[in-house]
Design goal:
5 helices; two-stranded antiparallel sheet; 11% helix; mainly beta
């Protein structure tokens, strides 16, 4: 009898806990204007996707301007979403290794998390990159393939942390329509966005990052920044099932920048404060029916004008994802 009562109490506690995490759909549906949005409170979304995280930076010094890129890998992943809960997991695609011989080996931990609620959008990232290759002028300016061996810089390393929080003014606008597929819009619409942004960037090497005319060599640049953002978003429902979404904000940041290096007289350090503007663009396009979603989305972000004197680093990072999702109706 004791064990029976224990099991009953455990089952009740579990049921109570799940009802707190996922309240009955009837108790939530009144929060939505169902003439404009479909909250899909009774549907589980399963997804298969391919993702690519780009990572590169431009170094501009007194004697050279060059773009260095990580040998980023394509990854394949699976995930699911139910209401607010979104979980994804991905592994490196086997065919990505074909680029290692020409572009060098990159060790990368590149985590970029983007979550979307009815009012708030949260971005978190952590990037630990060891090893870059120098892009040719053909790649940078003409978008053509490189025909000669790449300059491999295994000594170039990057560490970066960042967080952003933005507020959506229109409660009926759903970022989820194109980005995590757990809710959809029934009408085209847009919203204004405003938010905050903080971050840390460190680019360093054990050789030379910048060579200055005064016989100084800089090996490390650190930028700590914070600021605000303002912009907007709009989703066009092209037909019953096809859509296109575009989000754009301008980030205004105050930056504290430090460099370290050496000269014939010993170690060299320098500090500077500056103010910069940088854009963040998000876009998605695809087919969205009651059961199926096929779409492509991209997030292009950057931190520009990390500058001291004539030396500057512009940092660019991105996520591009191709998704197929299937929705299953579950019992409430």
């Amino acid at each position: 009898l004791f064990f029976v009562l224990l099991l009953v109490n455990a089952s009740y506690a579990q049921s109570r806990f799940l009802s707190i995490l996922f309240p009955p759909a009837d108790s939530l549906i009144t929060k939505y204007d169902t003439t404009k949005v479909d909250p899909k409170l009774d549907q589980l979304t399963l997804r298969l996707y391919s993702v690519y995280n780009g990572n590169e930076f431009l170094i501009e010094g007194s004697d050279e301007t060059a773009v260095f890129s990580a040998n980023s890998k394509y990854r394949l992943g699976l995930g699911f979403g139910y209401r607010w809960l979104i979980l994804n997991a991905a592994i490196v695609s086997p065919f990505s290794n074909r680029y290692n011989n020409s572009r060098g080996e990159t060790f990368a931990v590149d985590v970029q998390m983007n979550t979307y609620s009815s009012r708030f959008q949260t971005d978190l990232r952590f990037q630990w990159i060891d090893g870059y290759y120098k892009k040719s002028n053909n790649e940078v300016y003409l978008n053509l393939k490189n025909k000669s061996p790449f300059e491999i810089r295994q000594d170039l390393k990057l560490r970066s942390l960042g967080a952003g929080l933005s507020y959506t003014f229109n409660k009926n606008y759903l970022h989820k329509h194109g980005f995590d597929q757990t809710k959809t819009m029934k009408k085209s619409g847009g919203t204004l966005l405003t938010g905050l942004r903080i971050g840390y960037l460190k680019v360093f090497t054990d050789s030379v990052l910048f060579k200055e005319s005064s016989n100084k060599s800089i090996q490390e640049l650190i930028s700590i920044y914070g600021g605000f953002s303002f912009g907007g978003a709009y989703t066009f429902l092209i037909s019953k099932n096809w859509f296109f979404s575009i989000h754009g904000v301008v980030n205004a940041s105050l930056k504290k920048i430090d460099t370290k290096g050496y000269s014939i007289s010993g170690n060299e350090k320098n500090k500077n404060n500056n103010f910069s503007f940088s854009p963040t663009i998000r876009s998605s396009f695809g087919y969205n029916s009651s059961k199926h979603f096929i779409g492509l989305y991209g997030i292009l972000d950057n931190e520009l004008n990390n500058k001291i004197g004539s030396n500057k680093i512009d940092y660019y990072f991105s996520t591009i994802k191709l998704i197929y999702a299937f929705r299953i109706k579950v019992a409430d």
